[in-house]
Amino acid sequence: METLTTNERTYIIKFIPFEDKCGLNEDGTYDIAYSGHYIDIQFNDEIFDGKIYEESKYKISFFSSPYPFFGVDIEMIKKYFQEEHGVQEFLFS
Question: CA angle, 54 as apex, 51 and 55 as ends, to 5°?
């Protein structure tokens, strides 16, 4: 768990490991397997979700537009992920 404070707002950031598998073969292997971290960014009672895949750990995908949630803090959030986690791309669903 990490904490980021910007413009009088404090965000709690959690990284939750995940592994997705599909297509189980007879030999016990999978056709497709993904791993990475779900990201929960919490401010007060609100949570904003995203995901970073291990295969593309320089990209973060958010499940919705972050602008209403972060407001003016969006650039500071981007800078934090760039500097602390090496994220280069930000994708929004």
Answer: 110
Cα distances (angstroms) measured from residue 87 to each of 6, 15, 58, 67: 19, 14, 4, 18
Q: How far apart are CA 53 and CA 85, in angstroms?
A: 13
The pTM assigned to this predicted structure is 0.80
Residue-wise pLDDT tens digits, 67-82: 888 888 988 999 999 9
**Cα separations in angstroms, 56 against 23, 50, 60, 68:** 21, 14, 8, 26
* Mode of pairing for the β-strands spanning 9-24 and 30-43: antiparallel
CA angle 56, 92, 9 (to 5 degrees): 100
Strand-pairing partners, residue 13, are 2, 41
| Tokens read off for 74 | 């969006």
